[in-house]
Amino acid sequence: MEQSLYVDKPPHKCGAFGRIIKQFSECEKYILSIPKFSQDKHNLEDLQQFLAKLGNPQLGKKIIHVAGTNGKGSVCAYLHFIFQASGISTGLFTSPHLITMRERIKINDEIVSEDNFISAFEIVKKNITDFHPTFFEFLFLMAMLIFDDAGVECLILETGLGGRLDATNAIREKDLTIITPISFDHMEYLGTTLTAIAGEKLGILRVAVPVVSAIQEPDVMKFIEQKAAEYESPFTVINNNAIKINKIALKTIDFSYQYRYDIVVRTKLSTKALYQIENASLAIHSALIFNDERISIKSITDGLNQTVWQGRMEELDSGIIIDGAHNENGILAFMQTVKNIACEGRKFLLFGGVREKQSKKMIDILREDAIFDEIIACVLDNLRSLGSEDYKSSFLPEQVYPNVKSGLLLLINKKQTDDLIFITGSLYLYSEVIQVLTEGTDD
Predict the structure, then answer these.
(1) What is the residue-wise DSSP string for 50-82?
(2) Which of 87, 119, 382, 414 is the 20 to 30 A CA-CA neighbour of 389?
């Protein structure tokens, strides 16, 4: 009997899925073994041919494509919740994941099930002939199958790296493109100047497709305007003067965004992170540009009120806050928020970074203003992690811990009631921190 990803839909047009013969852990292990970048000379045309082999599951859907350096995932999440509140069925594809690979593929308010993940995995693997997709491409192809089988109306896609050559850019037809703030990151792949990096990000643009941008550095802003004009794409940029902060509470931010003189959206975000005001504003502006009659001021405010995006100034336990800042601009935004968090006790920081990032600059920023009473570093359980030797120029030996657990437990043991522990440097920290806190709870 043919088996569909979703039991209430007919079998997928690319054929029978067959019996599920793998466990989720086997699929996950296989995908993790795939190189992040291909040694073969395949390109987006190869990926488009693979999509065609799968039956072009991306066709017939509205597509919102998001690129930039910081805030991509948050903007995608805010839009996703807005669309849910508006009654628009939506598929969300983001990266990286924090705990399970299934987080990258979300349908409405649910991450993909293990069975559906396995079924999509087997279809993609079965169709590999001329070239083997990379880690990210494999998951992207799976996501397109899963979204198609779920029958969603709209796809919100976050680029993984850059934009021009990103797997998500294999989709030709789009309805809206969004550019979040562009800054220095992944220079070894994207270029060493902001305009070079912007050029890669703007590879997602399409002729006559609207583009919405966050406020950028002047040179980048001019470059985006020129590119949008070349593509004859309607171009708008959010205006920081249109943002009004009404109230910052302990765990929420009440603000307003004036879209037009006659349209003002006032909402409340469930976050401590001040940088999410800009990301939410970009989502508001984009939702209104999207021009779907089901999207209203109420559905926008409801969606934003309901948005939860893990790993962004998230309080995991009482007084333990993690933020996935992983580059210079991300750390600057993190610091702005930390400075505005009232604390009657001490502020501690646990830092864990990866090698290809500007970790030295990030650490220097974290030490400015001396707002932390103590900063320690840890080595992640990840091949990309900074090692003890890498921290030598920034920390004394006794300030560097061989793993997340030893560093975090030290701070937890020091912590008193009014103290706060902050954790940042990489999103890879998240799962390890969760494990430490869970073990602590079990004990």
Answers:
(1) HHHHTT-TTTTSEEEEEE-SSSHHHHHHHHHHH
(2) 414
